[in-house]
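User: I'm writing a tutorial on reading structure tokens. Could you give me a worked example: one chain, its sequence, then its tokens, then a sentence or two explaining what the tokens reveal?
Assistant: Sure. Here is the example chain.
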Amino acid sequence: MAMLVFGLTKRLPTSGSCISNTLRTGRVARYITQVTGEKTFFNRKRELTEFEKAFSGDPELHVVLGPPSSGKTSLIREVTTRGNFKPLFLDCRLGEFDSPTDLYNSISMQFKTFFENRRKLLRETLSEMEINAKIPYFSELNFKLFDKKEREITSSSVRAMLNKIARALPNQNLWKGYNVPPPIFVIDEANSLNRLGHGSAEGEVLLKTFLDWLVLNTKQANRFHVVLTSSDSFFIDWIVNRLHIPHVTQYVVGDLSKEEAEEYFEKHVLPRYGCKELEGKFDHVSKITGTRMLIIDRYVKEYKNSEGKLTASNFSVYNSEYLRLRDGLHPRGFKYSDKPDLPLWTGSELIETMKALVKAENQGYILEDDLINVVGVDKRKINSLCETSISKKLEHIGGFVYLGLTSLK
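And here are its predicted structure tokens:
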């Protein structure tokens, strides 16, 4: 996988594929990561250590981005559940932000459990009088979940609850002082946060209130870390426009290096499916699959199901990507109901852009200025490539453009 980096960045010596931690101040740090849907962790010691370090410092608002199935959720769950943290998880796939009632119930359930558990731990160390003196509102907080017999929960109800939580929570240093794991608030597929603001001015105000609450509890009051994960290409632009850059620390999850992917293929995937005949053939397989674990696993599974007769053109992922690319070679045929302007790029410019990204594979990314020099396109065309449906191939994530094709060799 390769990517195009927009804006000012500093090249750092790295190897392999990566998580890229990118700040608009110009710093890029990269860590290797990848997982499968089976919760199998492979070569993850460095990444886990780096994230544990990041989550153990002063509270930040972290945004973890990457293509679907790149291991974001599994990685964050592993770090937060195995480390010295008390994770509070919200999964936006479940409609947690569809309405004020959904938001109220999901947050109140997470924090209700947290407060009850922390009270028990603190009482093992402190007397009730000491607890009330150090965090006076902590023991008083009472969550009453939504009951159909009561009035409908409104935006005002949510705001009141958020204020109660903020008032009751101490600075993160208190937890550390008594060796009690501090909270870390994780929102998975956070791009669905915008559902709260759809269709009403009241919802938009509530969304802003919630985002401001996240900033308050991280940067301003140092109460807890917040981690937002997303597969949406433009989520970082959305969140940055609302919160401003100083409030966001951004990470991008990438794929394995070829060497690591080969080890995964030989030592983990082939034994699982009993395909000894593929041993030593990763050079051929990687031209079809790339180095994403999920795709490697799927290829071997389909190979097994086809009794060894699977060809590249019949592999489901490759075939789907090839058809999309073929459509992308004829951009003038694209029509969009929400985009009146035709794409600015040509099929040949798409090919040259993707070639430049592939050649940058070992580096992991390519700077926008370098791409302009190599391909000869301007910024308007690059933006057009990202904004049209060809972004299925060139995923614009957090200032990067990822090459979504499995192979271009």
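What the tokens reveal: The domain at 35-253 is CATH 3.40.50.300 (Rossmann fold). Residues 1-40, 389-393, 395-409 have pLDDT under 50 and may be disordered.
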